[in-house]
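For reproducibility, we list the full input for the zinc ion complex.
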Amino acid sequence: MNTHRYELMNAGVLADLDWLACDLVVADRADWNAAPAAALRSHAEALGLAGGDSFRTVRANQTHGDAVAVLTADHALLARTDWADLLLPRTDAMILCVPYRLGAVVTADCVPILVADTRHQWVALVHAGWRGTLARILQKTIRRMMVLGSDAKELRVWIGPCICQNHYEVDTELAARFAREFPETPEAVYGRLLNLTAINSAQARAMTIAGEHIAAANHCVFEDHPFPSYRRDGHQAGRILTRAVIRKG
Ligand SMILES: [Zn+2]
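The corresponding predicted structure, in tokenized form, follows.
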């Protein structure tokens, strides 16, 4: 398994959370297609997990929808002991509330986002491409966390590496839809160029999360070759796995 591990960029908002371990793993297309579970499990010791099959993984199947799953210890699928690598159907975001389960978001241009609740020690993993961003999946995830008891003051948001505005041109009609839907961030739609990081950041602020508790990697996957970009690499694109695990509880 030829995967490479990276630290999160510009992740100061998560830095002092000793209960949360996060990183990025880049897998090339062939490895990801042949053995996604093995890619997900690689470099696990760096997250404080023992190797092999000693822990379970969980990820959403990512259909570019806006459904949010809540992973508590009594979740029906987690209770099944025969699924070490759990793929949540019809889901694009999950709120992970149980320790020692490796959660991951899988992207190659889209935006991976982590939301940490510093009091409850939960972490949400969100997949936001243009469809998810337009459907306000980050806002819906944060709202769901608040229903579960999260307080905006105790949430930290990290917006991961994705395609930047200079490299993300969409058609005129879609750009116009974004401009209509997000009038509060006019700079995020420049002609036909979309800034998904800015729009997701605005969604977090709209949920009353303070600006100093929101950080963005500001790292363009199209420009940085070790990172996969679907726009640049097409069907040969690998995947970025944004991983998080709760280490206490
Ligand atoms: Zn770029």
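The helical segments are 12-15, 29-34, 36-41, 130-134, 137-147, 172-181, 196-206, 230-233. Residues 164, 166-167, 220, 222-223 surround zinc ion (CB under 6 Å). Both points were considered when choosing residues for closer inspection.
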